[in-house]
Write a structure and sequence with these properties.
Alpha/beta hydrolase, two-stranded antiparallel sheet, AB_hydrolase_fold, 276 residues, seven-stranded mixed sheet, alpha/beta, 17% strand, globular, 9 strands, Rossmann fold
Length: 276
Amino acid sequence: MTTPPAAAEPLHTLSVGTAGPRIAFLHGLFGQGRNWSTIAKGLAGPAGDGVRATLVDLPDHGRSPWSAEFSFQGYAAQVASTLRAIDPEPWIVVGHSLGGKTAMTLALTEPALVSKLVVVDIAPKSYGNLDRFTGYINEMQRLPLGEVRDRSEAEARFNESDPGVKAFLLQNLRREGASWRWQANVGLFAADAARGDDSAVADFPFEPGGVAPYDGPVLWITGAESTYVVDEDGERMRAFFPKTRQVTVKGAAHWVHSDAPAVVTEALRRVVASTP
């Protein structure tokens, strides 16, 4: 697979905290960096001196530039360039789902930039296809943006029974003048989903033995109610990341940091506390 060059334009970021270790947060598919705001503020503390957190909008999401072609190596390269421009010293990197695969790719390709890695509810494997997201993608494409007058009408016309999922997806809807557009590159992900089992988003770019393992400490946070990580994934995870420690959060599904923010914040606080 050919890695596309990193975009000249840096990724959009938000900053939380004024002192402490550098920590970067990477969101999942159709998310934005601000999805990690509650966790980042909890780590920074009332005085803002617990961490210096950077909440990254991944390529094709939020206010970051779009890609012509999807690639985890390309995403990781853009994250690396953005983080180095802020601070070239090593970072704690936290990633959920799509952001977790991007964070793993970053650690494997740019290990000197990652002091510690935290992966939230995703494994370094192919998930086969994007069937889990096809319904969401189709509904986003069906929403007649040219006819929508306001956000309440968009919510009424968007067919999704789960209010949390609906709110999560509609956070991507942005008004520009009298019109609306999706901040996420829906067309790119629709094209990837149409590839079925050849989906690049559902895949992972490396096989064990094909790249040097990342030798730094790794915290693997998984949801007990999630189906994204199974017991058999442990062997593959440790092949890439030998120093992995897994924490399974009871009662949490795939969006672990939303289902159990206090637990995730405390787990990350311990990671930060052990960072020089």
